[in-house]
């Protein structure tokens, strides 16, 4: 008996068949129910914020307000939330000209104008000043001090000079910090490249600990965030369909604490370990390979040494960054070499960290990919074997591992955290 399975792939799906005897399971985020009225859910959260007064009581009419928003690579429905938050500011007497919207890119590329418009919504796009953070713009950064782990904290000057700092984001899986949300809007969101590099150098200490929020990278983010402080964040937890399940407003620490429980319920899935093959779709982070490889990092947790990971990712924007490609295509680099790059700050540390993690994985497991956005030669150079089709790849892997092969499938691999029992 065979089972047909559909995997998200770009704007569509890909289908394959697999004998049920070989299928260990299909592992997806828990089917949490979206709230019936997302607007009323956000209004509720804003009316009853955690550990802080409502915005309309917190702000004063002449204050300069900055609102931090995550960027086009993230699923947060900012446009649904932003106008409701702005209504609270108006109720507090704040004028439009005193409000700036700042898109928190970290090290990501800047958004196109159309991506900005989609993110904030047409009305906010017309009404408000919108700035995109650039981590390399040192002239517009302010030094706040060192964390206890030695991270020098520089952040965008607009954030420091604002009277009130507010953020909009979501709490979801993060390969580096366990979960997004809270102070991640500050670091890496509006931090300097040097600050991000120092913080991300701590990621290797949390390698193969998915979902942990007590790892050094996340703890460093919290400490850096406390140096400046967001007066309020509105974070949401999303379901599989990227609709709002629940909204949380209040101080970053309390919002993250409360939202994390629900996020864990949604995204963490009990899985068996030591399977032969994991087939994982990078959806919803499949815009480019740099984003998509988070699905490989999560699938790694369940695959035995000598096993294989098959990544399904449309990658309409290709690899994502030439620097990332150059690093990954260097076949001479071993995990230790990436660690030296991290210590010496050779290039972008984020790339070196990912290079280290993937080098560790590739040393133990084979990587395959189904994609249309990247040439075969580039994929092979980076250590991914390009398959002509998903079904052909599945059949070949079953042939390689034999009739008793055990296969785990992750239809939303970039947002599924395996918990191996």
Helix-strand blueprint:
Elements: E1 2-9, E2 12-19, E3 23-26, H1 38-47, H2 55-58, E4 65-70, H3 78-91, E5 99-104, H4 113-120, H5 122-127, E6 129-132, E7 141-146, E8 152-156, H6 157-161, E9 164-170, E10 173-174, E11 178-179, H7 193-200, H8 216-228, E12 232-238, E13 244-250, H9 252-267, E14 268-271, E15 275-281, H10 289-292, H11 294-299, E16 303-312, H12 322-328, H13 335-344, H14 349-362, E17 366-370, H15 376-381, E18 385-386, H16 390-401, E19 407-410, E20 417-420
Parallel strand pairs: 3-19, 4-5, 4-9, 5-6, 9-12, 14-20, 15-16, 15-19, 16-17, 17-18
Antiparallel strand pairs: 1-2, 7-8, 10-11, 12-13
Helix pairs in contact: 1-3, 13-14
Summarize the structure.
The chain is of the alpha/beta class and 421 residues long. The chain is built from 16 helices and 20 strands.
Could you list the spans in which at least 5 consecutive residues all have pLDDT below 50? none
The strand count comes to: 20
- The CATH first-level class of the largest domain comes to Alpha Beta
Separation, N- and C-terminal Cα atoms: 28 Å
Structural class: alpha/beta
What is the count of helical runs?
Answer: 16
Give average pLDDT, whole number: 95
* Beta-strand share of residues: 25-35%
Known CATH architecture of the largest domain: 3-Layer(aba) Sandwich
CATH topology of the largest domain: Rossmann fold
Shape: globular
Helicity level: 25-40%
Number of domain modules: 2
Gyration radius, rounded: 22 Å
Oligomer: single chain
CATH-level-4 superfamily name of the largest domain:
LarA, N-terminal domain
